[in-house]
Amino acid sequence: MLVIAALVAGFALGSLPFGYLLVRAVGRGDIRAVGSGNIGATNVGRLLGAPGWVATLMLDGGKGVAGVAVGSWITAGASAGLAAGAAGAVLGHCYTPWLGGRGGKGVATLLGAFGFLAPVATLVSIASFALTVLVTRWVSLGSLVAVLALVIAMVWAGDPLPYVYAGAVVCGTVFLRHRENIERLLRGTETKVGEGRRD
């Protein structure tokens, strides 16, 4: 029951739609009507530039850290509780009830959570993201490679099984949230860094 409570608490924290709220706060309307319609850092950056991108990235990553922290508090530091809080935060971000289930894609929140749980694997994930984007200029592909690399690196590093299970769940969730990007990647129409959005 405590693990379930950690999952629910993490979900509640992760559901806070910071990108949406930030754009509203500066009087720029509804971020869901801009670009990809996503509430995450990449789309906020299209509207607000680098400051908006950084602010949203940090806030969304912070939700992941908060999810782990509350999971630890509820379960007195049990690894299953930390993992549940991390997974809950990512799921809450991706499917926030405050916006009718239309949330972000989960990458920043995932990296925040697992940066706390599995720092070595997270560094591998970030490096994989950076290398993929540098070579291909596709942020979406970099995100997908990054979450796969995270799970593989956690297994390789021997991280606790609850962390690996939670990583696998949120990795699958991130892939689901990127399904339109995957379709565009397969068609060769996905937007690259420095290009205007196209379908």
Could you please describe the fold and organization of this structure?
This protein is mainly α. It has one domain. Helix content is 73%, strand content 0%. The protein has nine helices and no strands. The longest helix has 34 residues. The protein is globular, with a radius of gyration of 16 Å. It starts with a helix and ends in a 12-residue tail after the last helix.
Q: Quick one: biggest sheet?
A: none
Low-confidence stretches: none
Shape: globular
Number of strands: 0
The helix/strand series, from N terminus to C terminus, equals HHHHHHHHH
Helical content, roughly?
over 70%
User: What structural class should be given to the helix and strand makeup?
Assistant: mainly alpha
Can you give the mean pLDDT? 93
Question: CA-to-CA gap between the ends?
Answer: 45 Å
Q: Please state roughly what percent of the residues sit in beta strands, choosing from under 5%, 5-15%, 15-25%, 25-35%, 35-45% or over 45%.
A: under 5%
- Count of DSSP H/I helices: 9
Total individual domains? 1
Supply Rg: 16 Å
Keywords:
mainly alpha; globular
Can I get a quick summary?
The chain is mostly helical and 199 residues long.
List the helices and strands and how they pair.
Blueprint: H1 2-14, H2 18-25, H3 41-74, H4 79-94, H5 107-117, H6 119-136, H7 139-157, H8 161-177, H9 179-187
Helix pairs in contact: 1-3, 1-4, 2-3, 3-4, 3-5, 4-5, 4-8, 5-6, 5-8, 6-7, 7-8
